[in-house]
Amino acid sequence: MNSKIKVLHIITRLIVGGAQENTMLTIAGLNDLSYDAKLLSGPTTGPEGEIVTEVIGKGIELSITPNLVRNINPLKDLRAFFDIYHFIKAGKYQIVHTHSSKAGILGRLAAYFAGVPVIVHTIHGLPYHPFQNFLINLFYIIAEKIAGYVSDSIIAVSSNNAENAISKHIAPRFKFTVIRSGMKIPRFQAAAVKRTEMRKQLKISKDTKVLGVIARLFHLKGHKYLIRIAPNILKKYPDVKFLFIGDGILRERLENLATSLRVRDRFIFAGLIPRDQVPDYISAMDIIVHPSLREGLARVIPQGFIMEKPVVIFDIDGANELVKSFKTGMLVEPRDTESLEKAIIYLLDNPDNAAEMVSRGKNIAITQFTEDKMVNDINKVYQKLIKRR
Where are the alpha helices (DSSP H) in the chain? Predict the structure, then answer.
């Protein structure tokens, strides 16, 4: 007789991304404890890449429900709801844990109607934000309130996300727990020695300063803001290179923007790379720039801290919980390209100060963002909720 607690994690897509990696590592970790954790996902489509192969390689039991798609589609969404409902009923799961916006709303409601004892959701980034249409914003807030009502616990990867949701009355404060998104710290530590090798591979000289962005080429990721200020940065530092890691629907548009500003030759669009090679590519960088307008808590911050790379980031969501300007990095107002430029120039002008910044952040990263800590903290949430039932 199987005495393990049956858990179903549900996510919309298994593209290359922080939420997806978080989910995969969580399930793998739970299966090493007293759980029988499985994963349900919608189809993984798009140019962003996939981690389906890696999920299966970790021995995680994965099922795909074809109607669970990212974009709003009333007919498919209704079908997805019933598909998830029947899947949950058939599996007799004791815990359903959802991730991402669409899967989070449909999955929690399906779990509620299926009579699941414990329903948990992780906010990797709020679906509503200041840069979207008012009606869409209102729709997501209402939908999250409904899903929040049926949730037993809501995990947020940043305190700011939790406080934002509480202020919008998504759910009462007692339902929220902040758990940092874990990662394989040793892999990033080990990659520090790859700098020379990666620069040779990328045809970058050892003295060239490299500004790197690690994000899919997608709306709200903000690559365009860095491209727009590239000419001004190059006036002072003509040898600077810009390294973009990731792919997406905006690649051609971003390449055209760089071309129109006559800086295309200074940009390296590396495209999709194997996820386990991300630390190697970071080793080739001098500064990490993250001009995204929507994140829960960008994983590039602790990754930069671990690998001793200073981070320049827009002050959105959980960024200011880790990055303090001139102390652990450079925090910039969203879409403020002038301040973004000044922050980057400051780090280029003051490498010693930049080194002090990352040394202050390194201990935070290696203590708060471990894979084991994330899994153990989630286990504590599960056990607390199970005891209540």
Answer: 18-31, 52-57, 74-91, 101-113, 134-149, 159-167, 185-190, 195-202, 223-236, 251-260, 278-283, 300-306, 337-349, 351-368, 371-388
Four-way CATH pick for 5-182+370-388: 3.30.450.20, 3.40.50.2000, 3.40.190.80, 2.60.40.420:
3.40.50.2000
In what side-by-side order are the strands of the sheet with 287-290?
Answer: 267-271, 241-245, 210-214, 287-290, 311-314, 330-332
Looking at the chain, the number of H-run helices and the number of E-run strands are 15, 13
Domain at 185-368, CATH homologous superfamily: Glycogen Phosphorylase B; (3.40.50.2000)
Instruction: Quote the CA–CA distance of 80 and 108 in Å, as a whole number.
Output: 12
Q: pTM of the predicted model, to two decimals? A: 0.89
Q: What are the structural domain ranges in the chain?
A: 5-182+370-388, 185-368
The model's pLDDT over 174-207, given as tens digits with 9 standing for 90+, comes to 999 999 999 999 999 999 899 999 999 999 999 9
Residue with tokens 């899967």: 103
Q: How far apart are CA 85 and CA 43, in angstroms?
A: 17
Task: Quote the CA–CA distance of 222 and 216 in Å, as a whole number.
Answer: 10
